[in-house]
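Hello again,

I reread your note about wanting to compare the complex against the isolated chains. To keep things tidy I'm splitting this into two emails, and this first one only covers the full assembly. Below are the input lines as submitted, including protein chains and any nucleic acid or small-molecule components. They are followed by the predicted structure of everything together. The single-chain runs will come separately.
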Amino acid sequence: MTMKLVSSVTVGVGGASAVTFSTIPQDGTDLVVLVSGRSSSTSSSATLQFNGVSTTTYSTKYMLGNGSSVSSTTATDLTNIFCNKLINPSTYTASSFSAAGIRIANYTSSNAKSAFVQAMNSTTTTSNGMAVTAGKWSGTAAITSVTLTATWDAGSVVSLYKVIKGSGGATVATA
Amino acid sequence: MATQTYIPLANITLSSAAASVTFSGINQGYRDLILVSEAKSTGTGSSLRIVFNGVTTLALYDAYQLGAGGTTATSSQSTGNGSVLLGGFSSLDSSTASMMATAQIMDYSATDKAKLVLVESGGSANSLDLISNRFNSISAITSLSISHVSGITMAAGSTFTLYGVL
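Full-complex prediction:
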């Protein structure tokens, strides 16, 4: 199976301050995190960290759209990858959740790590928004844990998949 | 057992700098292709591109782009590109960081329609891009080559993986 579920978390009653996937198997190529999220606060963002590292080793560049304008921001020396619009804020329609995906490439490599985040808030009563974020962690260790910190509301679902590359078939890659 | 729908076809990690990467003999038995790349450049001032079936006719490729450089976001249309744009309004980052790009090549094996390629790419040190490309050819795609627009080589460690989607 190419894209294999590693673990899935459904936030229970009472909410959670973070969702962490630890002891991630090291036999994949990329990681994919899928989020259906809602916050118990007015915040619509979450932060992403690897291996529990909270030093200023992260940087991001993101683009935001709210249906009438687009903006972009870049930031370096951050303590996390800031994921805009990853979760619906509490002000949105009850029982509505965001849709978001995070791809982390080559998570076992000894190079700096790249992450690409696409996120969208959805509601029928207040302004929607979407964000695309490119993040980098300069750490060279293999990623063994992923933490998404937010005021997660009950019913949020966060799932981690590993993607496995393949070879040996009719399709050939050459350089 | 459930039918696999996202099939890895081939992959390559550059052991040394290379001018291009080519996937050939692409199996025609899928609906879409997905190319995932994480590339580093040996120089600046260039974007990655994809050429299908070795065809570089300028007029056959055009694109709509939505991009951001970290302070402003812009949108543009380009024609006569000669290739599919894989991302990077601004210069590709140096070997200290990578640009990640995912390209979904829709209905690649069809012989009755032009091919659409949806690209999402970005790197925290360069630019973010969402690009809709069109390859105006009804030929099935049997090969694709990735290279820099300006001929700069891709650094060792760059990775490229091709998946078939049922």
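For quick reference: The longest strand of chain A covers residues 70-78.

B.
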